[in-house]
Amino acid sequence: MEQFSVYILGCGSALPTTRHNASSQIVRIGNKQFMIDCGEGTQLQLRKSHIHFSFINHIFISHLHGDHCFGLIGLISTFGLLGRTAPLHIYADALLKKIMKPQFDFFCKELPYRLIFHDIDAEKNEVIYEDNSITVETLPQKHRIPCCGFLFKEKPKKRHIRGDMMEFYKIPNHMRNGIKNGEDYITPEGETIPNHRLTRDADPSRSYAYCSDTLPCEHNIPLINGADLLYHEATFANDEETRAAATFHSTACQAALIAQKANVKKLIIGHFSSRYTDEQILLQEARSIFPQTVAANEGLHISL
Question: Which of 67, 120, 173, 201 has a CA that sits 20 to 30 A from residue 188's CA?
Answer without folding.
Answer: 201
